[in-house]
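$ fold --in a.seq
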Amino acid sequence: NNITIDGDTTLSFTEDVGKRFEAYGWQVLEVKDANRDIDAIRAAITLAKQETSKPSFIKCRTVIGFGSSKEGTHGVHGAPLGAEDIVQLKEKFGFDSKDSFVVPEDVLKAYRSKATAGATLEEA
């Protein structure tokens, strides 16, 4: 997300992590907008699963604090969002602003299904 607690990462970090993993012999895939482009994330995961001769690294470009009034700033890195910003975020993304913590039923069901499948695989 290119942000540290002190500001932009260019202040203290210049490494190209994708190039480092390429040098290790990994397949490197990039998702340029991991905040919005869920299809690109799915496609990268599919490609990573198809590559069986070497490990894969998926580099996802994100924006810290996506959707908040502090989006893209170091102000969201080391401090909690304010109550008003949380209400605005919940409303922006279709959640009830009065609920303190909610996992949508379809998401909960999907995760529970994966947990059950994982437990079955571990027992095998």
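$ fold --in b.seq
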Amino acid sequence: MSDNTFFFLSLSQLAEAWQEVDGVRSRAQELQSQVEELQEEVALQEKSHNDSSLLSELEYNLVMADWSLDKEQNERLVAESTELKLRAERLVEQEVVQQAIKDRDDAITKKTAMEAELLRTKHDMMCLNNQLLEAIQRKLELSQELEAWQVRHLCVFDLSVLT
């Protein structure tokens, strides 16, 4: 009777392990999708915000400079502001790239951890399968021994009744 209990306990544990594995996989895929969506959204928001505020500031500076400086100074300021704008754009791009790299590395770390957990779960499942097979084999052996004992016992009983 305890073998039957072990058999059902192992099957239920095996089913729970499979459910956990499926849940972990689904959650990992959901998290990966969310990370990618958030990365795109953040990159677009940062670029848009930085570009528009920098452009507004530069335009304001140019308007103010037009009133007080001569043409040569204005041209120099326009060139400098263009250069500053390009530098600012490069900095924003570098920041976006760095953040994307960090997010990617974080996602890879999470994926690696999930894969390690999956391997542990598979190993546990294989161990449970082996235990289950051993229990089934032992039950079969015990059933055969019981059957042989019953046959011998019946023969002895028949002989004792006949004599």
